[in-house]
Amino acid sequence: MKKTLLIGSIICWLHSLAFTQEKRDYNWILGYEQSLANPEIISVNFNANPAIFSHVITTEDFGMAGSNTAMSDREGELLFYSNGCKIINRAGAIMKNGGLINPGLIELLYCEGGGSPLRQGVLSLPYPGHDSLYFVFTIDFDRAYQGVDSVLAVAPQRVFYQLIDISLENGLGAVTAQNQIALMDTFSRSCLHAVRHANGTDWWIIIPKSHSNCYFLLPLTTQGLQAYQLKCSGHVWSDDDVSAQSVFSPDTKKYIRFNAFNGLNIFDFDNANGELSNPVRITFPNDTINSILGVAVSSNSKYLYVSARKKLYQFDLHAPDIEASKVLVAVWDGFQNPYSTLFYISALAPDGKIYISNTSSTYNLHVIDKPNCPGLACEVRQHGITLPSYNFATIPNIPHYRGSYGDCDSTSNVIEGMLGGRPVALYPNPAKDYLWINCPQLEGRSYILMIYDAGGSTVMHLEGNTALNQIDISGLRPGTFFYSIRIGASMVNGKFLKLE
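and the corresponding structure tokens:
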């Protein structure tokens, strides 16, 4: 018996090891619209550290309007990507038989020059046990509720799949099974996603059922797609299900689905049998409008980050009362480039950071540098990434490939707790050229930052009224400096080390 248990443990460990070594998500494709004269599609390569953001030349008449997925091989080399309308190979051309992958209203109304508008409307997965085969799944639009008052007329009624053999066409791949129907029902207008099975090989594909609290769980195994399971739990979603985002925690133990109208819905998930249980629902009546939202989970599976338009929150998924653990970690600082950089769709990247898109066409992404850390120690950098061209809202829909990992590295943080009833942070420490001051609950007030040298002389005096501000300290000599931050009559003091 003990020998059997040992062998089983070794097999599970080997599955886990293979799982953690995959670099399937090491290439992201972002952007807006593409023309040969004006390239707007962006490649993000996480094989480098820091990641490289650059233009990628792809076919004309290609754009991204919300749906977005990409696939790399085990070593992190890009294989293909899709906007829910076309599949593009690594050479930037439409893959053979990959030009029309979403028949119906999406193809008719959105695919010319653009892509599917559905958030998480396309998803790619490797075929378990078949090294050269891959699936691309999409959800369509149809007139599901034609003539019915008080609801949107259109909703997905089919989950399509394309089967790709990447070994064909000299390694550029070809679609060998086109527009096959994986599921037929009436589905949510977003939130097609997937998570690893407990065996470390298979997948659970999840898509919510429309106007219900039920979720279709579709297994993908080494034998192909299996019969779906329907799991029902928690809040019954209204017709206002557009622009939602869903995510699994990297340890697969939590499933989260969120939008402005139906709230933040958190479930325990059993990746052995697909059960959704212990639902928690948290509403955001004063924070989200116009379906502007996003969710992502830290690599250690502890902290959930919720984009709520002008505010960014952190929740502790391990807390006995998740709602009570809510911490405001950033408030939009009003930055526009050229349009508003509000908090929107988000995702955990291979580098352990969380990247957040904007609601409009901008040249920026927000970054959470240390999402494994509590509160302001997570270090939110608003518009911290400058892109080579416009990105419109898109963040790729890619499942987790590494399980849960990492811990909070707080060595570069100076967290000063509460100042005038508001949290404040100054980081990093040590610092070289720049400091960041973060006061997410400033709410119209201003702060004064004073920096002193070891002799007590003032070397810097700054006043600010934005939630996050970068401070240039490159002109200071190396050594220890002291500071004070004052808001009204309240003040905190501390020190930091300036490096060469």
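(Above: one complete record from the training split.) The CA atoms of residues 123 and 158 lie 14 Å apart.
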